[in-house]
Amino acid sequence: MAKENNNKKDNNNKLRVKLKSYDVGTIDQSTQRIVDVAIRTGAKISGPVPLPTRVEIFSYQRAANNDKRSFEQFERRTHNRIIDILDPTANTIAELSNLKLPTGVGITIKS
Fold first, then answer.
1. Which residues have a Cβ under 8 Å from the Cβ of 74 and sit 6 or more positions away?
2. Which NCBIfam families does the entry link to (predicted)?
3. Is residue 24 scored above 90 in pLDDT?
4. Which of 1, 43, 55, 89 is most deeply buried (CB count within 10 A of its CB)?
């Protein structure tokens, strides 16, 4: 059998940052801050990639006894973004751990 040439670069040095928020404005500000930190510290980035928005619709009856056909509907949208940081330096990781993000933005960082 012929040997395969693996010319691909080993991507062990990669951080995946996942962001979740109910407000699209705050999540866009947060992604811009993370991208600025990564570029400033010399790391390469891939993204931000917007993932599909999760829409949850809740229906509640308005009054318990008056009108059974009267419902209120509420909607909650969860916006998601992914940023891959390729070849992060120690300075990049330190800056990301000390980064202040707006309230309401959930962040998970995996290596």
1. 57, 58, 59, 60
2. PRK00596.1, rpsJ_bact
3. yes
4. 43
Q: What is the mean pLDDT of residues 31-40?
A: 92
Structure tokens at 55: 């829409």
Is 8 inside a domain boundary? no
Distance in angstroms (rounded) separating the CA atoms of residues 35 and 31: 6
Cα 78 to Cα 75: distance, rounded to the nearest angstrom: 10
The CATH number linked to 49 is 3.30.70.600
State the DSSP string of 7-67.
-SPP--SEEEEEEEES-HHHHHHHHHHHHHHHHHTT-EEEEEEEEEEEEEEEEEES-SSS-
